[in-house]
Design goal:
It is a single chain. The chain is an alpha+beta fold and 635 residues long. It folds into three domains: 31 residues; 182 residues, Orthogonal Bundle (Penicillin binding protein transpeptidase fold), CATH 1.10.3810.10; 236 residues, DD-peptidase/beta-lactamase superfamily (Beta-lactamase), CATH 3.40.710. 40% of the residues lie in helices and 13% in strands. It contains 21 helices and 19 strands. It has a five-stranded mixed beta sheet. A five-stranded antiparallel beta sheet has the order 8-7-19-18-17, sandwiched between helices. The chain has a three-stranded mixed beta sheet with strand order 3-5-4, covered by helices on one side. A hairpin with a 5-residue loop joins strand 17 and strand 18. Helix 2 runs parallel beside helix 8 and helix 4 crosses helix 6. The radius of gyration is 34 Å and the shape is elongated.
């Protein structure tokens, strides 16, 4: 009696389970649709490019490049099928026999056999479902698989699968996997390399040989299984199978997209795109191409110049920054924000600040020229002197306590004479000096107070601010808003955004001509004479802050303006002693880095000169040494 009841209960439960399963399947069939494959499969990496179209980096939660199946070689397709689903083109989406074969295969090969899911099931699970283990998810996987097979061809499913599956090392799809493991494109893979790619996709954490010796041993077994499978299915010849040997797999690279100096570029691009309305989620899955304004040769020249000429040995908190801007457009041509973004997530070119020192003196010179004070005007260059600062005495001394006697403004600029520039700013009007700095490109978030000290650079701007101000000088008084994103191209190749120059004439051309003539004197025998090695007309200004806490050189040619700064974490820390120099000034390392950078950035470009000055009275700053001084100390 009890036995009969148990049999009835078992039949009831089995029947109930069958009915419940059927109801669950029917419910899923009518409620689960095929998600839009484009929402996932086409979610390619966003590519950041130089202005010439060469790649800088990729951003996104997945490193993926989608390839049409026609661009995926047969040997790679066969290798994947040999590893995962040899009957893909002849079977249905869900294979009962496949599961049975997988169990037997894995017993016989000690875990190195085929998987139980079909490629269609794997694609459905990978592209549209979470990794949870539940009956509901398995039913959804089955439903999506069956619907996919009804809606798509086998080639379409296989193409999407090959562009979706994860291969480890942050790569999704066969193209990026080929690049990660063998430093080549998918269509360049050999049979052996294709077998490795197919082997690893089963479980990258267990088969990537870079992780451990145990992984390498597992990969060896899996590799042979794939080669044998390709031979058995007659996808390769016996000779090809015999010749197939385990290839050398590229080592894993640390740091990824944001490592090194390029990380600061990637971060800056993302920030600018955010301001333009492109969200982080869009960048992660949008498949955009971001064409920057960066010139590849100039950027490489910036990195090379900093690496070669930054002083060593140096304290760990020494920072070198460089920004170059194209005059008249605002395009950022090169940017060095630091050694490694992974280590320090503060861009020294756009976010860090440093005391400006004498790089601010040209703003006083502009204000004076606009007020009708000519370069030929005479000034007292003795040191020290005391001036009035809102009713309080303000003592000023020249660098090295060097007195110059009566000199003209041209010579005072050439040798950066403090005791001339402070009264010059007072006479021109301190508010006019601040206004000139603002018009040139020093933004409102840089604090400046209209007192005599502003002429000597007590303000702390970003390096990009000073570079852009000098670009205004190079453009003969035309201010341009700096920008890094030149173009955003969507996945359908349509242009979603086009960067354009935003310009405004802020200074008269004749004022700029006289200013540039004076700043040429800084290079031609003045504090920035190291820049003479550039071998083409250049104008600029050195800058050394009080106590040598920072050192700058900002300069320009008609085609390009750039600013270089060296500084430490605190304004109380001096640069002196670094690189074996008792005194690190703007005329030392910054000018040398600037010159080396400009040489590379301008290589192959025509040599151009500046417009002739308006009122110089026959003075020539190249040879002039007013006051009887035949020696010079850099500042």
């Amino acid at each position: 009696m009890l036995k009969t009841k148990l049999i009835r209960a078992g039949i009831f439960l089995a029947g109930f389970g069958f009915v419940a399963g059927a109801v669950l399947f029917a419910l899923a069939w009518f409620t689960v649709g095929i998600p839009d494959p484009n929402a996932y499969v086409n979610s390619q990496s966003t590519i950041i490019e130089y202005s010439n179209g060469n790649e800088i980096a990729r951003i996104g939660s997945e490193n993926r490049q989608k390839l049409p199946i026609s661009k995926i070689p047969l040997r790679l397709r066969y290798a994947v099928m040999a590893a995962e689903d040899r009957s893909f083109y002849s079977e249905r989406a869900f294979s009962i026999t496949g599961i049975g074969h997988a169990i037997v295969s894995n017993i016989l090969t000690l875990g190195n056999g085929r998987g139980g899911s079909t490629i269609t099931q794997q694609y459905a699970k990978t592209a549209f479902l979470t990794s949870e283990r539940s009956i509901t998810r398995k039913v959804k996987e089955l439903v999506i698989s069956l619907k996919l097979e009804n809606a798509m061809t086998k080639d379409q499913i296989f193409e999407n699968y090959l562009n979706t599956i994860y291969f480890g090392r942050g790569s999704y799809g066969v193209q990026t996997a080929a690049q990660q493991y063998f430093n080549r494109n998918a269509n360049q893979l050999t049979i052996s390399q294709s077998a490795v790619i197919a082997s690893i996709l089963r479980s990258p954490g267990l088969y990537d040989p870079a992780f451990s010796a145990a992984n390498k041993k597992r990969l060896d077994g899996r590799f042979q299984y794939v080669i044998n499978g390709m031979l058995k299915e007659k996808w390769i010849t016996p000779a090809e199978a015999k010749a197939a040997k385990m290839p050398v797999v590229a080592p894993r690279t640390a740091g990824g997209t944001l490592s090194g100096p390029k990380g600061y570029i990637v971060d800056s691009v993302e920030k600018e795109l955010s301001k333009l309305g492109f969200t982080q989620d869009q960048l992660l899955v949008g498949g955009y191409v971001i064409k920057t304004t960066l010139d590849q040769d100039a950027q490489q020249s910036a990195v090379d110049a900093v690496n070669k000429l930054t002083p060593t040995p140096a304290p760990t908190n020494l920072h070198t920054a460089l920004v170059a801007i194209r005059p008249g457009t605002g395009e950022i041509v090169a940017m060095y924000g630091g050694k490694d973004f992974v280590v320090r997530q503060l861009n020294d070119a756009t976010q860090s600040i440093a005391l400006a020192g004498s790089t601010f003196k040209p703003f006083a010179l502009v204000a004076a020229l606009e007020a009708g004070i000519p370069l030929t005007s005479m000034w007292n260059g003795d040191t020290p002197q005391t001036f009035d600062d809102l009713g309080k005495p303000y003592p000023v001394a020249n660098y090295g306590d060097e007195g110059w006697g009566q000199i003209n403004l041209l010579t005072a600029t050439q040798h950066s004479v403090n005791t001339v520039f402070v009264p010059l700013g007072i006479k021109a009007g301190m508010d006019k000096v601040v206004d000139a700095a603002r018009r040139a490109g020093i933004p409102d978030n840089v604090a400046m107070i209209a007192t005599p000290s502003v002429v000597l650079g007590v303000a702390s701007p970003h390096v990009i601010d000073v570079a852009n101000a000098y670009a205004t000088f190079a453009a003969q008084g035309v201010y341009s808003k700096p920008y890094l994103v030149g173009q955003v191209i969507g996945p359908n190749k349509g242009v979603l955004y086009e960067g354009k120059a935003q310009t405004q004439e802020v200074f008269k051309a004749d004022v700029m001509a006289d200013l540039t003539y004076a700043l040429k004197g800084v290079v031609n025998g003045g504090t920035g004479s190291a820049a003479l090695a550039l071998g083409r007309p250049a104008a600029g200004k050195t800058g050394t802050s009080e106590s040598n806490a920072s050192a700058w050189f900002s300069g320009y040619t008609p085609q390009l303006a750039a600013s270089v700064a060296l500084f430490r974490d605190s304004a109380s820390e001096s640069l002196n002693g670094i690189g074996g120099l008792n005194s690190v000034t703007g005329g030392t390392f910054p000018t040398k880095i600037w010159t080396a950078f400009m040489k590379g950035a301008l290589k192959g470009q025509p040599i151009m000169d500046f417009p002739a000055p308006a009122n110089i009275g026959g003075l020539d700053p190249v040879v002039m040494t007013s006051g009887g001084h035949q020696h010079m100390k850099t500042k």
